[in-house]
Amino acid sequence: MLAALITAPGQDTLEVRDDVETTGFGPGKVRVAIRATGLCHSDLSGMSGKIPGPTPMVLGHEGAGEVLEVGDGVTHVKPGDHVIVNWRPACGHCAHCRRGESNLCGAGSAAMRVPAFTSRGTDLYRFMGAGTFAEEVVLEAGFAAPIPDDVSYEAAALIGCGVTTGIGAAINSAQVKPGETVAVVGCGGVGISAVMGARAAGAAQIVAIDPVASRRAWAVDFGATAAVAPDEVKDAVDTYTGGLGFDHVIEAVGRPATVRSAYETARQGGTVCLVGVGGFEDMVPVNLLELFVSAKRIIPSVYGGDDVTRTYDRIINLLRARRIDLEALVTHRLPLADVNDALGLMRSGEALRVMLTTG
């Protein structure tokens, strides 16, 4: 079958092979045909090594598909069911799961170290335990989250990462309330999902911040009340908050400069919600005196900041109520074989979201 992989960190392109086979199917496992998988900037971090993982490694983590086969002991899905690939499944018994913090469970990370494919006599691993840049994948049962048949594969794939991350940051982590003011720094797929989440939560003002004009336009299309370039932020604070600063600032870039800007843009006592993934070497300059005096809360948001499947359900309810439009996020659709062209579209900023299909 077809799959796209890296053989070592630091590669700029993916190697597309047609001789990959799944391995490891058995008790407690699910074999899934991937029907749609989105490109996410985390995939670029996997390619560069910023998000580390064993190689050779099949990339992709934002996917949805159809269950082909289930192993002994799997009862929550059956062949023919539609599923989201949940790369952060809950084991149900670790300290985080017992505290209701299942989005922090390490079961998904552990799965990264388990081979799930083979090619040319070599074991291949799955990025973030998912490996959705493949026509099929064998997963631990918890990775397969069932969804209603009326949710499209494209919408389900987006829920599998970017949409849950962004909407969850607004409604779960930041806990945006009706009438509050929100700024979103970075208007890629996750940032625009945060815009949608803030709108669904009833925010009065939602200001999107991005240097790229096309992304600012997309943000307005998806519910931002205004969109500004980074050098216009001070004026936006004056115009939309009376100079106080925003109640919540959601940072969806993951760079020290944008995190610092987000901190400065929040009001005293406000919330800075960090969604963008930085690296070990990325340090944010905040001194202890301003941290104390400002009383601003800095809250990282991991995969929606709550039980993942609960957030999936909330998003599906919003989708069915037509309060959000997920398929409209997809600006380009390409076959899996053209994954490197898709990466180019994402890197250039020409695409909001690129969806890969396997047939």
Please, could you describe this protein's structure?
Helices cover 30% and strands 26% of the residues. Helix 5 (162-173) packs parallel to helix 6 (189-200) and helix 5 (162-173) packs across helix 11. The mean pLDDT is 94. It has helices at 41-48, 95-98, 107-111, 153-159, 162-173, 189-200, 213-221, 233-241, 256-265, 288-294, 308-320, 339-348; strands at 3-6, 15-17, 21-22, 29-38, 57-58, 62-70, 82-85, 117-119, 122-126, 136-140, 144-147, 181-185, 205-209, 226-228, 246-251, 266-274, 297-300, 330-335, 353-357. Strands 4, 6, 7, 10, 11, 18 and 19 form a 7-stranded mixed sheet that branches. A 6-stranded mixed sheet has the order 2-1-5-9-8-3, with no helix packed on it. Helix 9 (256-265) links the parallel strand 15 and strand 16. It is globular. It has 359 residues and is an alpha/beta fold.
